[in-house]
Amino acid sequence: MNSVLNSEDQLIRQAQAGEKDAFCELARAYERRIYSLALHYCRDHQDAEDLSQEVWLKAYSALSGFRFESGFYTWLRKIMINCFLNHRRSKSSRLREQSESDDYFSGVQGVSGGSLETTLQNRLVLDRVRQVLADVTPQQRLMFLLKHDEGMTYDEISREFNCSTGTVKKSVSRTVTKLRQELGVDNESEDYVSCTAGGY
Length: 200
Description:
Blueprint: H1 2-16, H2 20-42, H3 45-62, H4 72-86, H5 92-97, H6 101-106, H7 116-134, H8 138-148, H9 154-161, H10 165-183, H11 191-196
Helix pairs in contact: 1-2, 2-3, 2-4, 2-8, 3-4, 7-10, 8-10, 9-10
């Protein structure tokens, strides 16, 4: 693990010195993760591409200010959150959403060895989750993704949004309630969310 961190630190220092290949190597390590979150957030392939590119352009511009006081991805995620919050999704995104359903799910990791019936059921559930996320505010959606996709704590999210922990908990709870109602889940536990997170 230390060797990985040391290697990453070395790449950062090289990138700060102007080596573009080093920055490209850093980007390759996290580009799929950033794009996946962008796609979950704005639910449109082209918007996700544009949003991801914006994150990387801002990261490249700000890299000289990286002081190794946190992990690179933690630093990168702050930039990502700011980009997401400033993002203005076009109204046409929702209209294109259904037509891109098949392409979207082709990038979702399925259950290996699962039956066709199970695969189809999973896709139906994922589609319903996406519909619910489309109906909440961008801020609620991002808080939910950071909690259940990124695994951030309520305290960490509250610091990113400069709000109280209670505000974050209430926001995530509202989204979970919507999901529970849509999916017909009566159990008050949020454990089921972990089954959908990372694949919606």
